[in-house]
Structures are given as structure tokens and as C-alpha cells.
């Protein structure tokens, strides 16, 4: 293991590369990354990165977003099969159909989406900036794609808008059920429940805090409570425990693991940096169209 880490550090220097990692990848990959964060933070890091190579320890839409925002860098993915299923859960025809049906409409696209889907949207959001971005849009009608649960959570806070939802979902967050959260609360009544907004509305309703992965980490760190029930992917435990060695974190079941994020290993990070394989490439016209929606998010969210 130590040998592998040394190899990665050496390759990072040789390739003039930076390693970005999402909070859901395995602990040892987070530990060796130069930047670890939620989707919004990592997109902002990628935008400003000046190293020649960005190695993205995450799922495909994250690497794609990095390439869209920073086309002069080489972006490489440790495993091309690490793909978020939700990122594909909307048909372009459906977007066109809703655009025809509604005037005064904004198509708001969760960053968990393919570049092609982004290219048909007006603005992107992440779970940490969606409320700010959508509330500042002038349009009354909001078509929120692809995730229904995040859409419903934001919609519940903006009654002045008319939301149209799409039926995309995250299977990892959907596996967290209200019944299991209630059972965990029964066992640990003193615990605060921290929920990612990709969870279903009945789980969101049980949250003492609802927010992005970094929101959950920051909330638990600032809280004077010392026990928490975590309703998101369990990769966040690494940072939660680093920042809060004296606090206790419980899951609500055995399925809070994203199999796609878990495809990233020290071995495939090393191989990718060594061989510069799995480079993210996008046709320039598609990149420019998708960039508009990401730029709009960055402009509004700041
Ligand atoms: P965050 O932006 O909160 O890190 O979420 C990304 C994600 O994929 C959640 O499933
Ligand atoms: Fe996609 Fe869910 Fe995995 Fe996040 S946790 S990358 S939304 S499948």
C-alpha cells in the first residue's frame, strides 16, 4: 500500500497532475487526493486548476464537467465504468416536449447529468447551491431534471414557483427508507439525523439537517451533539471521522454504498496517471453548449 502511494505521488509530479476526489470514494483514495469535496467544490477547483493533468476520482459526469470548464487540461478518469446511473435518467425528447408545453420556463439540470443533457438545460445546480440558483431565476416554471427527489426538496421551499418533476433517482439514496431511519432513531434517540436531498421526501422530512455531502460534514462538525444518523453514501464517514474523532456516526442499513464511486482504487489511479488513459474528450460544439449551463450556475452561485 505504501509503495503504491509513493508511486502515485511520484507520478503526480512527473505528469504535473492534480488528484481530485469526491467524498464517496474509498478512504485511501480520499487520503491521497489533493482536493476532496462535494460536486460544487470540485467543479470550482477544476475550473481554476493550472496543472497539466486533472485525475478525477469520481464518476463520469464529474470528469466531464471538469473538461467542459477547463478544456486546456487533460482530464483522466481512473475507471471509465464509474458512471452515475441517474446522470442518464431523462430523454432529450422529454425536455423538448416540456419546453413546447410551458412558457416562462427554465430547465434546471442537476450536475449529476451527461454533457448532452446539460447542453439542453438553461442552468445547472448541485445539491449545495440549488436553492440559491433556482430562487434567483426569473422564470415561474421550473423543469427540474434528472433527480425527482432533489427537485421536490427545492420545490418544497419555493412555493412561488411551479415545478415540473422528472422521475430520475439515485438508487443508493432510495435504498435509505423511512422505516430504517425510524428504527435507527429508536435505537439512538439522542442522535441527529443528517440527510442528503437525493433521499425520498419521507426520509428528508425526518432530517434535522438536509444538505450536500459537505453540508452534512460541516453541520456535524459544528454541532454540539455527538451522535448522528447519516442518510447518504457512507464514504462521507472518512471526513466526518477525521474532523470529529470524538463523535459517533450510524448508518441506517447496509446498502449506503455507491458501487460506481467504489470502482475507484489506488491501483486504477496509479495506472491512469502512469498511462494517461481514459482521457475525457468531448466534441467542441457539445462542450460549449453544456458549458453555458455550468457557467450560469457558477455566475449565480458565486
Ligand atoms: P454532493 O454534491 O452533495 O457531493 O452529491 C453528489 C452525489 O453524487 C450525491 O449522490
Ligand atoms: Fe450517482 Fe447516487 Fe452514486 Fe451519487 S451516490 S454518484 S447520485 S449513483
Spell out the key features of this protein.
binds 1,3-dihydroxyacetonephosphate, binds iron/sulfur cluster, 45% helix, 302 residues, alpha/beta
Q: Which helices and strands, and how do they pair?
A:
Blueprint (H helix, E strand, L loop, with lengths): L1 H14 L1 E6 L4 H6 L2 E3 L1 H10 L4 E5 L2 H10 L4 E3 L15 H10 L3 E6 L4 H5 L3 E3 L4 H6 L5 E5 L2 H10 L4 E4 L5 H4 L3 H10 L4 E4 L5 H4 L4 E2 L2 H10 L4 E5 L4 H8 L4 E3 L15 H10 L8 H18 L1
Parallel strand pairs: 1-2, 1-3, 3-4, 5-6, 5-7, 7-8, 9-10, 9-11, 11-12
Characterise the protein shown here:
With about 300 residues, the protein is an alpha/beta fold. The chain is about 45% helix and about 15% strand. The chain contains 15 helices and twelve strands. The strands form three sheets. The chain has a four-stranded parallel sheet, sandwiched between helices. Strands 6-5-7-8 form a four-stranded parallel sheet, sandwiched between helices. The longest helix has 18 residues. The mean pLDDT is about 95. The site of 1,3-dihydroxyacetonephosphate has 10 residues, from loops.
End-to-end separation in angstroms reads: 39 Å
* Class based on secondary structure composition and strand pairing: alpha/beta
Number of strands: 12
Shape: globular
Helix content: 40-55%
Biggest sheet strand order reads 2-1-3-4
Reported for the largest beta sheet, the result is: 4 strands, parallel
The low-pLDDT segments are none
- Mean pLDDT, as a whole number? 97
Percent strand equals 15-25%
- Note the run of SSEs as H and E: HEHEHEHEHEHEHEHEHHEHEHEHEHH
Amino acid at each position: 500500500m505504501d509503495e503504491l502511494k509513493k508511486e502515485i505521488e511520484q507520478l503526480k509530479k512527473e505528469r504535473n497532475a492534480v488528484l481530485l476526489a469526491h467524498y464517496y470514494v474509498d478512504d485511501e483514495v480520499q487520503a491521497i487526493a489533493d482536493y476532496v469535496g462535494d460536486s460544487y467544490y470540485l467543479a470550482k477547483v477544476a475550473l481554476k486548476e493550472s496543472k497539466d493533468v486533472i485525475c478525477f476520482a469520481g464518476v463520469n459526469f464529474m470528469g466531464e464537467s471538469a473538461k467542459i470548464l477547463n478544456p486546456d487540461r487533460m482530464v483522466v478518469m481512473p475507471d471509465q465504468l464509474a458512471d452515475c446511473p441517474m446522470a442518464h435518467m431523462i430523454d432529450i425528447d422529454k425536455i423538448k416536449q416540456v419546453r413546447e408545453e410551458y412558457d416562462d420556463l427554465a430547465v434546471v439540470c442537476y450536475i449529476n447529468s451527461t454533457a448532452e443533457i446539460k447542453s439542453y438545460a438553461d442552468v445547472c445546480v448541485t445539491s449545495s447551491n440549488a436553492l440559491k440558483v433556482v430562487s434567483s431565476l426569473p422564470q415561474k416554471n421550473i423543469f427540474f431534471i434528472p433527480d425527482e427527489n432533489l427537485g421536490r426538496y427545492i420545490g418544497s421551499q419555493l412555493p412561488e414557483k411551479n415545478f415540473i418533476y422528472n422521475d430520475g433517482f439515485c438508487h443508493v439514496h432510495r435504498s435509505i427508507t423511512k422505516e430504517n431511519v425510524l428504527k435507527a432513531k429508536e435505537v439512538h434517540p439522542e442522535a441527529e439525523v443528517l440527510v442528503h436531498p437525493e433521499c425520498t421526501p419521507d426520509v428528508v422530512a425526518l432530517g434535522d439537517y438536509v444538505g450536500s455531502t459537505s453540508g452534512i460534514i460541516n453541520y456535524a462538525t459544528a454541532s454540539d451533539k455527538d451522535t448522528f444518523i447519516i442518510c447518504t453514501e457512507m464514504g462521507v464517514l472518512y471526513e466526518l471521522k477525521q474532523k470529529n474523532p470524538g463523535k459517533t456516526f450510524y448508518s441506517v442499513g447496509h446498502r449506503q454504498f455507491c458501487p460506481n464511486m467504489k470502482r475507484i482504487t489506488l491501483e486504477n489511479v496509479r495506472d491512469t496517471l502512469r498511462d494517461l488513459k481514459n482521457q475525457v474528450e468531448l466534441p467542441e460544439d457539445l462542450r460549449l453548449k453544456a458549458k453555458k449551463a455550468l457557467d450560469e450556475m457558477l455566475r449565480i452561485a458565486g
